[in-house]
Every structure is written in C-alpha cells, then in structure tokens.
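Risk register update: the risk of archive-format incompatibility is retired. Evidence:
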Amino acid sequence: MGLQMFQVDAFTATPFAGNSAAVCLLQEPRPAQWMQQVAREMNLSETAFLCPRADGFALRWFTPEVEVPLCGHATLASAHVLWEAGHLSPEATASFHTQSGVLTATRQGAWISLDFPALPPVPVAAPDVLVQALRVTPVYVGENRDAGARYLVEVASEEIVRTVQPDFALLKTLPIQGAIVTSRASTPEFDCVSRYFAPRAGVNEDPVTGSAHCCLGPFWSQRLGQETLMAYQASARGGVLRVQVRGPRVLLGGQAVTVLRGELVG
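Archived output:
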C-alpha cells in the first residue's frame, strides 16, 4: 500500500498562487536519504514528511537539495492536510515536533495560525558579495544565524523589491541559506513587502516564506511600532501573511488550498 501524498498551495486561498508544498503522511519513520529522494522527485521548494507520535506529529522539511531546520509554508500545508483529511478534529491544535522545537497550528475560521520562534536580525556591515549579488543599494543589512542563517536587506521602495534580479550564482557563494529583500509597503493594504532568495538551498526564489517572516516580523514591528502586520511576499505567485509579534514568538497567519491528492508508491 502506498503513502498518502498531497500538494497544497500555502499562504493563499487561490489555487496556483502562494507557495506549493508536498505533504507526505508516513506510517513510520523513514531514512533521511529516502526523504531527500522524494523531495527531489517532487521538485517543489519544500516537501514535508509527517509521522504520528503519541503527542502530535514528527515533522521534517526537505528542499530538492537539503533538509531545512524551519519552514513555514510546508507547516501550514501540513496542518491544512491533517484537518482536511480528518486526521485531526477541526477544533484540535496541531503539534509538530521539529528541529526548531515544538511548533503548533490552530484554525481561526478560514485562516491557520502558526506559532513560530521570533528570529530578529542583528545589524551587520553589508558584505560586498551580497550587494553585488542582489544588485541593490541597501538601507539596512541584518543577519540572523538561527534556523539556517539568512541576511535581511532593507531597500528604499516596494518597486525595488518587486524588480530586483539577483545574480544567483554569486549569491550561492555566500555561506548562508538565503537573503530577504524587503521594504515598507506602498500598496495600501500591506505594511511590508519582501522577496526571498535561497539558491544555496536549491531554491533560487522561494514564492512565499513563512520562516523569513520570523525575521521580518520583529524587524518591521520595531520599525513601524505595531505588533500586528499584514505582509506580502512579492514573488511571481505572491502570498499574504498576517504576522503578530509576541515577545520571543511570532504568529504567522495564512490560508491554504489543496490542489492535488495522490499516492506515493515508490
């Protein structure tokens, strides 16, 4: 008998937008090498593997190239699948045991709220290679070394965020998972906009990145003087997030829609 597989578009209520994740429901733990092969086969930015345990679910995330320590959209997709497929009752909290500790998800109407760690950036001098690779003039550069390590680069306008065209080969030479480019939003319904580039993890541009907002949330909350933000990730697919900063934690809100159900027989 095969394993249940789902493809879910996360941080969107519209099919073929947001960030697509594969979710594989395991009956027992599988080797990391096998999970990496499945993720390479799925060829999405992340494939999530869920395995039941007495106090929730073990959860691991793989890009086509590497295992990552924290992933927002594939966690959102996993919670969505557990409720939609009847593995959890609608009012139940989803608890995930991960490399980044215990993460939880709750339903709030049509939205799902993820409880994630806050990963605020620390100001650093902009590495020359980073500036050359992104081809932008930074207003601010910060770094966070937790959960994979990434740079946060603030630029002067939303237009710059939307039009940036990185040199991915050069960006890949930096010893970090990726780089966030962000600005205050000029689009009225949003507070901030961003894009995320992670060629070293095998994903040149991630369409919508929950974990990046663990860094963006504290940064923009302090800059704008507000605990709750509406964020837009301005990739070609695009995605919307509600971000609430609560001390050492960040609540990431998003919607999700299933676009494929199937069976893994390999």
